[in-house]
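Please go through the protein record below and see whether the fold suits the sequence. Record follows.
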Amino acid sequence: MIGFFTSSNIVWKIVSNSSFFLKTMSLRAIFGTVSVMDILLLSSDKKIQSALNEGVVGSDSLLVPMSYWDQLDKFQRKALSRKLPFLLRRYTKYVVSLDRLHWRGGKIKYNWGVGELKKMTIHVNSGVWTVLGALAAAHGVSRCYLFNYLLWLEEMGIGDSIENTMNRGVPQFYDIYKMIWTLDLRKNLVSRELYFEPNPLKNKHTNTFPKPDL
């Protein structure tokens, strides 16, 4: 299915499971002549790219249940605002291997149904905030939801049982993470997938076994 929608010289095009912007440029702008026709400059190779860690600590906000916040003293509240980097180092590998926290590929799950929420400010670099966002997007949940889930894992003592197994003697993060959100209009399907490299489950030794004789 192909559709064009024009407005203010901007054309939206939807083809199958992808979408991108097309900007029109008149022949007169190119050749200096008058023409009733326009040239559509088509390109699907557009992306946003910038430094992951911009080297500056920024201020961001997260929501936690007020019932949880009220249990903390002032020292614990201050420590909580600095806890995100620690939680990501401890649980990122575990989180990427979990069944997804939300089952709907086109919706985001938020912290509904937990009562009143407390807005807290955290100060982290852009890399930390982006990693949290990528993991949350892959699971179909908000950053706040995933942050509270990480706090719950820590409260349950999950990190004590898995950290040595998953992180001992190796980097706490993989080198590359790639989150793909696929919209398949023809099959009426939407999916979220997270890939990472190196993947210890799909390393070079995986292909060394002889293929079955079928």
